Amino acid sequence: MKTKFYLLLIFILTLNFPIICHSQTFEENTIRFPMLHEYDGNYHINPMGEKGLIVLRNRYAGEKKDIISELEVTYIKSNFQKKWVKTIQLSHYGDFISEDFDDTYAYYLMSSSKKVYQILRIHLEDGSHKVFFYRNVEKMTVDYFEIENNICFLGGAADARPFVSRWDLENGKRTILPSINQLKGGVVCMKWDHDVDLLTVVIKAEMSSEHRGVYINDYTVDGFLDKQYFEEVQRDYNYLTFRPYHNSRGELMLIGTYGIGSYEEGAQGVYTMAVGRNGYRLRPKFYDFLFFNNINSHLTEKEQDHIKEKFENKRERNKVIPQHLILQEHELQFMNGQVVFVMEEMDYIYPFTSDAKYTTETFFSKADVPTPKRFVQDYENQIVKKGEYIPYALNVDKLTGGNPFPLECRYKRVIACGFDPETGKMQWDNTYSARSLKNDLPVESVQAYADHKKVAFLHVSRDSFFYKISNRLEYKSDCEVVVYKDYSPANDVEKYMNGGLSHWYENHFIHTGTKKVTSTINRSETQQYFFLTCLSYSNRRYTK
Q1: Which residue has better confidence, 377 or 123?
Q2: What is the pLDDT of residue 488?
């Protein structure tokens, strides 16, 4: 009788108190790499989707003119298990600029000097490697690096002109892509689409002070021009950023942000458009942020009503309310039959006033700021000391106004929206309020995962990660907090460098960084390490 009574009691409690297993929503796995000292954190990661990822540790010795690099390369499979660890000796030291991969190899672009670039190619199966040298006769500055099947594309500038070079690693042959170098302007986007074997290059060109526009070119793997689209800068709006891909019909799709007026750098909204095979623009759509369902949901009802009333009055008079949002925009994420675009609204804190011309000796202050991916171990830029950790998840776009890296980045809110990959039509939007979230460098610290019903925001901190889950069109302010497994009350985190949070593949995200941990019992006991944490989202145990 007692057994039946207890079974009945458990059944009643189950009916009245549904189980909510939020803590199981994200699965956490961490791999540590020990550091000998503070400036032993020269780690680079190369996420390769379902092929896994590579962690590369660069150790060096000697003077600049006679350097030998010792690289420790760790290949981690998609199940987050190590496959192999190799040590590679390089007789020519190289500052890392960028990385890429294809079905067989991982590639690392390095600069030996201002005149010589080199590529380290590592075989994914066994870790064997080969180095290829690029004699920089064009005096080219490289900002972009894409590769497929040993065909390398280097994009940047040469003699103050946009420049893209095709380099066949096997035979050493190099050619210059057509319809680029004769323009006056700069490359602002270069992206290889593995699904269709096409390279998209976007150039902002200035033919004269009155005649400016955007060239969007597609090239085949052989370097031939497949399609070209040109649009002159409009009086009412201008394109700020570009995220290209191709749909199933072979149309070039672009998603990005736009600003009002022909010079505005602050974002007003999100645009989508398609470029057909004949080079004509199809189905352009402009989504003003004030048309988003949840853009201001984090505000009080009174504040929301005030903005809505002001917005409606402007609409009746066919006017636009300027937004001027300063955004840090992520790469597109493709998941569950949709395209997810995440943008972090920022405040940048600089060590100088807007009219100051010079900064301290330890701060980069040039006007011709390259892409942040190039801020590696370079004394000329003076961003970091030799061997200091450089976050992988640095913002991929140039900072607005040609500004250098700020002293501090303060995150205000995160905007995410989803699109139909075939038409570019927006399907949903949501907002995450990242209160008191800040970092020393502009790294991606918040990501979003979406299925057909829900969207999950995830952001990371010193010892914890935070997330919220809601319906795709429903704002939710409550966050769940989960303490990392490797955190212990017996240890204090004395120094923490947040490397940011990156989308790896499918429902998996990568958080990287460095930590210095001291024992609270014995202060002389310290550990320093680079960590690689995989956070995998699953809604199988999430019930409402």
Answers
A1: 123
A2: 81
**Cβ atoms within 10 Å, residue 65:** 6
Residues 6+ apart with CB under 8 A from 528: 34, 35, 36, 37, 38, 40, 41, 514, 515, 516, 517
- DSSP 8-state assignment for residue 179: T
Over its C-alpha atoms, the chain yields an Rg (Å, rounded) of 25
Quote the CA–CA distance of 110 and 154 in Å, as a whole number.
Answer: 12
Residue ranges in 273-411 assigned as alpha helix (H): 301-316
Q: Say how far apart CA 468 and CA 540 lie, in whole Å.
A: 16
* For residue 22, pLDDT beyond 60: no
User: In the predicted model, what is the mean pLDDT of residues 401-409?
Assistant: 69
Q: Structural domain of residue 219, as residue ranges?
A: 136-233
Query: With bands split at pLDDT 50, 70 and 90, how would you rate the model's confidence at 282?
Result: confident
How are the residues of the chain apportioned to helix, strand and coil, as percentages rounded to the nearest 5?
Answer: 10, 50, 40
Round to whole Å and give the CA distance between 142 and 157: 7
Domain assignment present for residue 172? The answer is: yes
Tally the domains of the chain.
1
CB atoms within 10 A of CB 73: 22
CA 381-343-212 angle, 5° bins = 70
**What residue type is assigned to position 248 of the chain?**
S
Per-residue pLDDT of 420-468, as tens digits, reads 999 999 999 999 987 678 887 888 999 999 999 999 999 988 888 899 9
| Cα–Cα distance measured from residue 143 to residue 205, given in angstroms and rounded to the nearest whole number | 17
Closest CA to 503 of 35, 45, 58: 45
- The overall longest dimension of the chain from CA atoms, in Å, is 92
User: Does residue 493 lie within any of the structural domains?
Assistant: no
- By the 8 A CB rule, do 178 and 192 touch? no
Instruction: Report yes or no on 112 lying in a domain.
Output: no
How many CA within 13 A on the CB side of residue 231?
17
- Strand intervals (E) in 354-461: 408-419, 426-432, 437-439, 446-450, 454-460
- Residues 110-160: tens digit of each pLDDT: 876 666 788 999 999 999 999 998 877 777 888 899 999 999 999 988 887
263 assigned to some structural domain? no
